[in-house]
Write a structure and sequence with these properties.
The chain is mostly beta strands. 12% of the residues lie in helices and 50% in strands. Strands 1-2-3-4-7-6 form a six-stranded antiparallel β-barrel.
């Protein structure tokens, strides 16, 4: 279950990264921070503040918003206490928006908590708001 939430969060974070960095800031006080690398928008830190697959994301230091329309994730979850690692793959896609503000981003994340540790590599395609 944690792995699915992480994947969803990562997708949202990537979407946020595609938004770009503007001069005004409306960063959420809570959420998951993710560093992403986008083909057009470059390196971004985004905050994912909900757990839906296509939840919008917010670029840190910006009011721009990104919305994922395609996601591909691969990862491994290792339970705490020495359990066998579990691999996972998650893919989903919606039709690409026709607004012309689209980007492709990649990310890598490693984390651990009381339930275990995970490593995730992903690609996300996003639509982003204009600056």
């Amino acid at each position: 279950m944690r792995v699915r939430l992480v994947g969803t969060a990562l997708a949202s974070v990537v979407a946020l990264a595609a938004i770009g960095v503007g001069s005004a800031s409306a960063d959420p006080q809570k959420g998951e921070l993710l560093a992403i690398e986008c083909d057009t928008l470059g390196s971004l830190d985004v905050i994912i503040f909900s757990n839906g697959r296509s939840s919008p994301g917010l670029v840190v230091g910006s009011t721009r918003v990104g919305i994922p329309y395609k996601l591909e994730l691969e990862g491994t979850f290792t339970p705490a206490g020495g359990g066998d690692p579990e691999t996972f793959v998650d893919e989903w896609e919606h039709p690409a928006p026709r607004n012309g503000r689209l980007d492709h981003c990649t990310f890598h994340q490693e984390e651990s908590d009381e339930s275990g540790s995970f490593v995730v590599d992903g690609e996300v395609w996003i639509s982003y708001t204009p600056a």
